[in-house]
Design a protein that fits this description.
alpha+beta; Thiol Ester Dehydrase, Chain A; 12-stranded antiparallel β-sheet; 2 domains
């Protein structure tokens, strides 16, 4: 049963067949889907979701996002998701989350920053209309707030992509999860097939819209763990920067 208790949204979800990849484990992008589905259900239930935002010509846009994995969920696992608003500022709000198994073991934790977007001007806008709807839980931290990430300094390999219709979201730009998918798809199999993703952090910087072409570049740093610094480049400027750690 989905419910809010003292500002924390509790939701149960099951790992479905279309959310798993090799070895029957949850896809990295499916973690983002689970979290954002729970976040959307919470905001809709408390009347500060996308529907309410769009009534006043605004939308929620994900600005930064991070998570770390302690145990990878597998197919048919029952997951308990907890999410809450950590703080709310003039233009943005930080939301944290945890995913636990049925025994209460912490599997994944993370945090995110969401910004108000003026749909007409396509620029950041205030979110003060919804402050009274939010029960802030600034006492509950997870892995710390997302931070500004450095970009690629030395390109080790790259690929290209063009935004297609299936990449778009209701705001009519490329869905944030697609950036992550593009990055993963362009990594070498030496990383994706031989290593395990332990942590990821993403900065969303600029919109990509239908038919725009991007270049995906990567820098690989091997210091025991494999750290990959990736960037989705649009017109030679980063639209998204992603740091991932593999073990």
């Amino acid at each position: 049963m989905n419910k809010e208790i003292e500002g924390i949204w509790y939701e149960e979800q099951v790992v479905k067949s279309y959310q798993i990849g090799p070895n029957y484990t949850l896809k990295p992008t499916a973690i983002s889907e689970l979290f954002q589905e729970a976040a959307g259900n919470h905001s809709n239930a408390k009347q500060f979701g996308l529907r309410e935002m769009m009534k006043v010509g605004k939308a929620w846009v994900l600005g930064t996002y991070k998570y770390e994995v302690f145990h990878w969920p597998k197919w048919t696992d029952q997951l308990n998701i907890e999410t809450w608003v950590f703080d709310i500022q003039k233009f943005s709000s930080q939301r944290n989350f945890k995913i636990l198994d049925q025994e209460g073991r912490l599997m994944i934790q993370g945090s995110s920053n969401w910004f108000g977007l003026d749909l007409k001007k396509r620029r950041p806008t205030t979110i003060h209309e919804f402050e009274d709807c939010v029960h802030v839980r600034g006492d509950l931290t997870t892995s710390g707030p997302p931070k500004k990430l450095k970009g690629v300094e030395k390109v080790d390999f790259s690929s290209e992509r063009e935004a297609s219709y299936s990449d778009l979201d209701p705001v009519n730009h490329v869905n944030n999860i697609r950036y992550f998918e593009w990055m993963l798809d362009s990594l070498t199999t030496d990383i994706t097939q031989k290593k395990i993703l332990k942590a990821v952090e993403i900065n969303y910087i600029a919109e990509v819209v239908l038919s725009e072409k991007v270049k995906i570049i990567h820098e690989v740093i091997d210091d025991g763990d494999i750290k990959v610094i990736s960037a989705i480049m649009k017109e030679n400027k980063p639209a998204c920067i992603i740091h991932s750690v593999w073990k």
